[in-house]
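Methods, example record. To illustrate the input and output format used throughout this study, we show the complete record for Phenylalanine--tRNA ligase, mitochondrial. The sequence lines were provided to the predictor; the line carrying structure tokens was produced by it.
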Amino acid sequence: MRLLSNVAPLRCRVRLARLYSTGTSGVVNVMGKDYTRDHLTNITPTIISKLSRKLYNQPGHPLSTLRALIESHFADYAHLSSVSPIVSPAQNFDGLSFPADHPGRSPTDSYYINKHTMLRTHTSAHEVEVFARGTARYLLTADVYRRDEIDASHYPVFHQMEGARVVSADSTGMAELTADNARLRAELARSPIVIDDIPHFDARTNPHQPEHDPAHAVALAENLKLSLNGLLLKLFGGRANLGGDAEGGEPLRVRWVETTFPWTAPSFEAEVLFRGEWLEILGCGVVRQKTLENANVPDKLAWAFGLGLERIAMILYSIPDIRLFWSDDPRFAAQFAQGEISAFRPYSRYPACYKDVSFWRPDVAGGTRAMHENDFCDLVRDVAGDLVEDVTLTDEFEHPTTKRQSVCYRINYRSMDRSLSNDETNALHAKVVSELKNQFGAEIR
Ligand code: DAH
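The corresponding predicted structure is encoded as:
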């Protein structure tokens, strides 16, 4: 008896392993190049198909207008936008001093091509290389990739803009910042903006770097905030109250808060009051000297920021679902003109249809870990693409003796362009179920 029960699952596992399309052997072709698969490989065909879309270059697309608006605020910066999304974990994490156990490194959160190669999870992945080239001021626009849940505001690909300014760590650099700060301060004082600021550093909660003269740290942090206050005014000024309770013509309200990033100190987030709600818009800080040393420019000082374009565009254009940015439907694209921010007019809301699937949570990644919600969401995206609106975990329990975990997910299918027929939804769902069995050996309940 014992022998049999030991042998049976083994045989079963061998048979299933051959079926796995996400196996650990062979190669995966990404942007025309073959990469050897390994235990970290988790990039999917759906993600690979997004790699060259460049939505921010499509004239009239909200992401393109927003990008141009931000570039116009930083007119004398280098505008970079054709940097490959394929990076090394060293670029994405190590060069920016991410700790070894940072959750962002996990293959449940990031897309790996293999252990040496991944898709950037943020535009900061290019900071070290751009600093190393000696570029003193730049904006970098790019697609970034994160494994995530499925709902109206999460998509595994989104777009960020990174901005940075470098000055020399001497009196010339300080004179440059001081003059610029005086000019920007005077400009903002004349503008319809109310800024709820915090100290440029706080020895206890948001310290400057030990390498920095406190006066330099202040000049840098102030220059960073002043530059970004101006940007926020350009983006949200005169638009923040539209449709809200407050009367138009009120000044924009910006609020600064302390935060932490592995490669900046002090670090901040900026929020704007939009229709009565404080919305987090960007992260930024004074770049750590370690980062500048990694770029071989230890005698420089820098600040940097990063912002997510979809989040801002959804607010400014009243776009209710992040999938719309990827829509080829002319009813979406034809609404927008390059350079103009206008409210999205929903053209229709087609019926949704949900289906449940319950299964014993299988092992993934060559049996090294249990299936994560993001693994399931990637499978659903590979089958149903943008026809899936959201996925929610509706039930979960652990069998008291076997300790196996059972999960139930509800998948909400809805097209943004047309009505899905029952047959079509059933076929999609049947494919999700069969892929769960084929790729992961999942036992459906
Ligand atoms: N990369 C950060 C993110 O994705 C945003 C960010 C924060 C960029 C601080 C920066 C920075 O350059 O200094 O959340």
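Annotations derived from this record:
The chain has twelve helices and 19 strands.
Residues 1-21 have pLDDT under 50 and may be disordered.
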